[in-house]
Design brief:
Distance between the termini: 101 Å
Protein name: E3 ubiquitin/ISG15 ligase TRIM25-like
GO molecular function, one term: zinc ion binding
Oligomer: single chain
CATH architecture of one domain: 2-Layer Sandwich
InterPro entries: E3_ubiq-ligase_TRIM/RNF, Znf-RING_euk, Znf_B-box, Znf_RING, Znf_RING/FYVE/PHD, Znf_RING_CS
Keywords: Coiled coil, Metal-binding, Zinc, Zinc-finger
Radius of gyration: 32 Å
Strand content: 5-15%
CATH superfamily of one domain: Zinc/RING finger domain, C3HC4 (zinc finger)
Shape: elongated
Largest sheet: 3 strands, antiparallel
Pfam family, one: zf-RING_UBOX
Order of helices and strands: HEEHEEEHHHEEHEH
Structural class: mainly alpha
Length: about 230
């Protein structure tokens, strides 16, 4: 079984699971590609991008470098020790698939509740206070103690309503861009379809002329053959 030290080296600090498609930031810290991409997306427009691990700042969105050796080791551990992947599931406010649900159900500390679209009555797992804010840098819902005294105290944070409106506005902008792109693609398809019809029409005309020309040549050859035979 993989040692605890080795597992720590292979654990993404964002999702707390063994790396999946790990990538490395310029500061040297590694994360799952999907995890760090989501965090960087939430930091757009904040003036700088920050590493969730060491808080190193980047003026431009940092490039994600494939950590091939780390990925190979993580995949090997995951394939040879599947129990390692299931053992470290953090207890958070998440929607769970059936395999993760079975693991959570085995622990008395993990309380399952019905899915909800509201966080108004959810409490922080650390301070046991109602979640009121959204940490823009770590993409997490936090309570007032997390914001003032906890690990998020120097992070940019919005109220849940503000964060929700920003997310909605961002999604509306994305939807608008996709709609415009879809309309533009539809116009290009129609243009290509019209071009195809024109090309087919020209091709049909050329085929008709070539067929008539071949027929005329054959008739001339037959007439010439008759004259030669006479």
């Amino acid at each position: 079984m993989a040692s605890a030290d080795l597992r720590d080296e292979l654990t993404c600090s964002i999702c707390l699971n063994i790396y999946t498609d790990p990538v490395t930031l310029p500061c040297g810290h590694s994360f799952c590609r999907t995890c760090i991409r989501d965090v960087l997306d939430t930091q757009e427009g904040s003036g700088a991008y920050k590493c969730p691990e060491c808080r190193a700042e980047f003026q431009e969105r940092p490039a994600l470098v494939n950590a091939r050796k780390l990925r190979n080791i993580a995949e090997n551990i995951r394939s040879t020790h599947p129990e390692q992947e299931e053992a470290g599931i953090p207890c958070t406010y998440s929607s769970l698939c059936e395999s993760h649900l079975r693991v959570h159900s085995k622990s008395a500390e993990h309380v399952l509740t019905e899915p909800t679209t509201s966080l108004n009555h959810r409490k922080c797992s650390v301070h046991k206070k109602v979640l009121e804010y959204y940490c823009c840098e770590d993409a997490a819902c936090i309570c007032v103690s997390c914001r003032l005294d906890g690990e998020h105290r120097e992070h940019q944070a919005d109220s849940l309503n503000e964060a929700s409106e920003k997310k909605k506005e961002k999604l509306r902008n994305i939807l608008q861009k996709l709609t415009l792109q879809g309309e533009e693609a539809e116009k290009r398809v129609q243009s290509l379809e019209e071009l195809r019809r024109q090309v087919q029409g020209k091709a049909a005309g050329i085929t008709e002329r070539v067929t008539a020309l071949v027929r005329d040549i054959r008739e001339h050859l037959k007439a010439l053959e008759k004259r030669v035979l006479r």
